Amino acid sequence: MRSPRIGARLGSGLAAALLVATGLAASAPTALAQAPASAYAGIVPAPVKVTPNASATFTITPATRIVVQPGVETAGVGSYLGQLLRRPTGFALPVTPSTSAQANTISLLLTGADPAVGEQGYQLDTTADRVVIRATTPAGLFAGVQTLRQLLPASAESARTQRGPWTVPGGSVLDHPRFGYRGAHLDVARHFFPVETVKRYIDEIAAYKINTLHLHLTDDQGWRIEIKSWPKLATYGGSTQVGGGPGGHYTQEQYKEIIAHAASRQMTVIPEFDMPGHTNSALASYAELNCDGVAPPLRTDIAVGYSSLCINKDITYKFVDDVVREIAALTPGKYFHLGGDEAHATSDADYNTFMTKALPILAKHGKTAMGWHEVAKAKPAAPTSTVIQFWDTKASNPAVAEAAARGNKVLMSPANKAYLDMKYNASSPLGLNWAGYIEVQDAYNWDPATYAQGVGESSVFGVEAPLWSETLKTLADIEYMAFPRLPAIAELGWSPASSHNWDAFKQRLAAQGPRWDAAGINYYKSPQVPWPTTNPGSCDNPAWESAKIYTGGTLVSHGNHEWRAKWWTRGDEPGSTGRWGVWEDLGSCA
Fold first, then answer.
1. Does the keyword Signal apply (predicted)?
2. Which one of 67, 83, 222, 342 has the fewest beta carbons within 10 angstroms of its own beta carbon?
3. Is 226 helix (H, G, I), strand (E, B) or coil?
4. Which residues are catalytic?
5. 453 exposure class (CB count in 10 Å sphere: 0-12, 13-18, 19+)
6. CA 168 from chain center: how many Å?
7. Interatomic CA distance for residues 209 and 144, integer angstroms
8. In the beta sheet, which residues pair with residue 52?
9. Is this prediction's pTM over 0.85?
């Protein structure tokens, strides 16, 4: 996960970087975006097959309904779609059960889909009088909903009511993923993020068909999950974070809230309890976990590789068993990530001993193991069911190639391509650069099936974009580092290899900018992407003038947004708080 070259202390340069506003771009775009020939040409990730029909357009009206196949899970997808569309349209959009598509409806059906869609794909058909999404599973319907979102105007992503019309261009999509696992990783250990921040990130990445959240819950700098049998792990081990500060942790009820929210977005959570290294927060909380019986102090720097559980103590394995038991009971997914990386303070012999004892504990509690690629060199070899997460910066890793040859699946996360915490360039206000700088084109221009020697497509489990939080403190920080690179990694996981083309992708990526503007996502405006200079369309209302008197209900244009006066006003600029907050932001122009 981390290179030991990072250094031992949070230096003054990094501390200063933390204070820089994350909205600053390195430089201005160099070209204007070319408008896609149709909305279908702007979809990210690129679908398998698209057939536009320019002669038909479906319009969502106040009378439109959402029809769902009867069943609890499909009703959940319908409810989600209703919530998305009610905000910008202001329409009621009732959700009703039915097994057939009907006029003036958006129908979500588990019948009639082309068998090619498999378990996660979908078929979307738009005519003048209806939109029909068909799939074999609720996950497929959910994926189809994400494509439907991108066929609507960008203002559909706004949380406030906008002006229509709400049109969906006619056409058909047949789509299914290249890899079944498409993940995003979030480090809540280096800096703690509250439940609402994690839930918002889940919402944002779900839009790009990410179906797994790998949650890094423990590390040297903080323990972030309540363990009832070892309570000091959270109350003491979670009491600080990188650079100091109060830290924090999730109660088990809060963790279950995250799990439930992810499930409502057809996303599985994989918890990570990193061991035997990256464990200083645990060692500081319980002296008996140390070989010498002395608890070290809590750490708030970003050094790695110095901590280790005591391999030869029985209490170590009781501790591991208790933690895995409690987290596993809270987590319905199949996989449990045991870390295993950068255990530099653990000898090879001790590392092997630890893995021979830890891996069966995961199996005992009904979980299949995942681990960073160091697990591949354990002897005896980890079971072939163990998923190896490749994070190397070099294409050659003999231990990983040998594991793939034995039958282990490999999750691709090369640090110099997929790590979202790497700086975009030398001017980036956030991030590190030990794996190099990763601009958007770097994040996109690699193939998970050919990148690592000895790991062919049949051995690739999927792709994942890790986001470590040494320099990140807020949701805006997370967004700035993830967007636009996260959609690039998502496309590598979903779209067919034959569609992989940077020149085409950057145009489709540019079309996402107005959507992120409407949604309030703080993204990096890479100069490699031809972002639109303004949102599509124009504000038709008169421009605001400071000297004029406006009465309640008056509509004006200002700052590429539309505004409604709440009551009498003059001189209070839309977008500022004013004395009474007299203007209501109706969102970006569309």
1. yes
2. 83
3. coil
4. 342
5. middle
6. 26
7. 9
8. 171
9. yes
β-pairing, 212-216 vs 130-134, is: unpaired
Sequence letter at residue 532: P
Task: Give kind and range of the element (H or E) at residue 181.
Answer: strand 181-187
DSSP bridge pairs for 182: 463
Token pair 């870390």 in the structure block, residue: 339
Tokens standing for residue 479: 């967004």
Tokens standing for residue 490: 């998502």
Residue 105 parent element (H or E)? strand 105-109
Amino acid at 439: E
- For residue 454, the Cα-to-chain-centroid distance in whole angstroms is 28
Residues 322, 335: Cα–Cα separation, whole Å: 17
Helix and strand numbers, DSSP H then E, in the chain: 16, 20
User: Within a 10 A sphere around the Cβ of 112, how many other Cβ atoms?
Assistant: 13
Contacts of 587 (CB under 8 A, 6+ apart): 88, 155, 158, 160, 161, 162, 518, 561, 562
If 0-12 CB within 10 Å is exposed, 13-18 middle and 19+ buried, where does residue 303 land? middle
Cα 214 from Cα 336, distance rounded (Å):
9
Helices in 520-576 by DSSP H: which ranges?
none
